[in-house]
Every structure is written in C-alpha cells, then in structure tokens.
Amino acid sequence: MAVKDRASRGMGQLREHAKITLRTVLYKRNLDLVRGPYAVRVASALTWLGIDTVLDVGANIGQYGSALRASGFDGRVVSCEPLSQAFAQLSRRAKSDPRWTTLQTAVGDCSGVLEINVSANSYSSSILPMADAHLGAAPGSHFIGTEKVPVTTVADLVLDQRVTPARALLKVDTQGYEGPVLDGAGTLLADFAAVQLELSLVPLYDGQLLFPALVERLSRAGFAMYCLDAGFGDPRTGRMLQCDGLFVRKDLLPGPPGSHDSRP
C-alpha cells in the first residue's frame, strides 16, 4: 500500500474514533449533532424550487423563521402567531428584518374569534383539547389558561399579504389544528409550490387529523412527500409521536438522479 494511501486510511480511522468519542459524550446528555439539519434541507429545497415566500402559520416566538434565515433563506417570511406573549417576542425577533412580516392572528377555516388553550411551554398551545399521550410524554406542556384570539384564513392571508402561492411555501404548525387551516385555504391549497405540516402518528390533541389522513389529503391536492424530520417523541418509550413533513407539488418535483432538469 502506498504511503499516501496509508496516511489517508489512518486519518479516516482517527476521524471515526473522534466521532465515536464525541457521540458518546453527547448521547449521555441526550444530545446530538447532525449533518444536513432539517432547516438547511428545507432552505435548499426552497432555493431549488424557486420559492421566495414562506407563509409561517403558527410561528410562536419565531423559531422557524430564524432557522430559515440561519440556513440561508433570504426571501419573504409572513409569520402568524395568536398568543400575545409569544407574538411580542416574535415581533422583537423580526423587527430588524425588513422581509419578515409578523401578524397577531390564528389561522383556521373561517374568520372570527376563537379561544385558544395556553400551554405552560407556550409552543404546545392549541385551539383543541390536549390528549393524554401528549401530557404523558411532555408534562410541562399542560394548559394553564385560555386567550381569545382573532382568526383569519390562508385565503385571506394570500389576498391581504399579496402572496403568490405558486412561489410560496405554506408552513403549518398549529398543534393539531392543521385540518381547519387547510380548509381555510380552499382551492388555493393546490396552487402552493410546497406545504409543510406537523404530522402526528397518535392523537396528541382531541379531534386532530393524523399522519395518514393529512398525507392522503395533500396527495389528492397534487402534492408528494419530499422529506421528513423526526419531531416530538415520548422519552419514556422512545416512540415517535410526531414528525414534520415537507410536501412539494408533483409537477415541480426534480427528475431522477442523472436526469436533466431545467432548475438550477
């Protein structure tokens, strides 16, 4: 074996030993480091698909918008968050970003006013009642109060914010309320270039649509699953309870590996 090959092999082995040591330290603390995190993959997909606007429904304090910005997305973000305390933090986070619009509103199947259940951790707040599976897996997510909030629809947001669905991602993170949000998009749903949803494998909120129903609904609207990311799980059992799914309109899907595609 050539000296150069032996040196390369030795460096590769050292690198793998270093990975094992680092993973051991992290796993003992229930942590991990990954290559190609979900937000980076989403940002890459948005660039590839020519998407320049994100309609961020259920923004909480701006976690999603911040992750996209950190991952290189420089297009427009329109974030909707109904809770007053979370919205105040969202507004501060987006204040210095001229391409990030924040709106204090819930999103559903019709405009009006609804009462939302406020959770202790804020981000588990929902219009729907919380199921036992959620409480058991995340005790700090229990509801501590309610808040009356204004409600709009995706269709109204598209009109009011002058969103072009064919160049937009509709992201929905509404803690079990995905069905009514999609209902409120009406016929415009099929016009979006991409949709991202939280997909629950078990009921986490009473009355919510689960993974199979939401995937089927988007498939009927002309979307195909593009990528998945592990989300909320039960630390007691290791069971995945919820994941994030990115769906892309079927006519926009890239060709198979090795094929010629006109997109960059």
Strand content: 15-25%
Overall radius of gyration: 21 Å
Name the strands of the widest sheet in spatial order. Answer: 3-2-1-7-8-10-9
Helicity range of the residues? 25-40%
The secondary-structure element order is HHEHEHEEEHEHEHEHEE
Overall shape: it is globular
For this structure, what is the CATH class of the largest domain? Alpha Beta
CATH superfamily annotation of the largest domain: Vaccinia Virus protein VP39
Q: Structural class from helices and strands?
A: alpha/beta
End-to-end Cα distance: 41 Å
Number of helices: 8
Which spans have pLDDT < 50 for at least 5 consecutive residues?
A: none
Topology, number of strands: 10
Short note summarizing the structure:
The chain has 264 residues and is of the alpha/beta class. The protein has helices at 3-27, 38-49, 63-70, 84-94, 132-137, 154-160, 178-183, 211-220, and strands spanning 53-57, 76-80, 100-103, 106-107, 112-119, 143-152, 168-172, 194-200, 223-230, 242-249.
Name its key features:
Rossmann fold, alpha/beta, 8 helices, 264 residues, single chain, 3-stranded mixed β-sheet
